[in-house]
Amino acid sequence: MNDLYGRLKTKKIKITEIPKWGPYLRKHWENIFANHLSDKDKKSIYLFDTGGYCGYLWHLFSYEKKNCLEEEKAEAAFNNQPKNNCYVFYQHSDYALFLENASMFNTDDLINEQDIYIVDKGFNWTYIQTHETGWCGPYFSIK
Fold this sequence. Notes:
By secondary structure, this protein is of the alpha+beta class. It contains 5 helices and 7 strands, in the order H-E-H-H-H-E-H-E-E-E-E-E. The longest helix has 12 residues, at 22-33.
């Protein structure tokens, strides 16, 4: 997280830390991108931590429950996506960032980042880099 903060700062991106926003942003992400799934469907793809299994929101894409771009196509889509204001948050942390003037933000800034979610302010698109990148992800999807 601190490496990412430093990389973004050098690009003159305005960063506001929002340390306790993780749960809110994860829930809002679920409501926007996984709203077509029932609770039963969400449980079946381990969207949440249940029964000793670690849940991940990005399972929405690895279980092919929503259309997305993957791997190099996802990276290219994120890099080419206009990014003015966006949120950055994590699967297993309540720490989050709000970025302004983030047009220079790209996948090179995400070195060593895992289970990180980036969305524009309106939650119109999302980019996710998983801890299994190369096998699962990264992913890019539009609402």
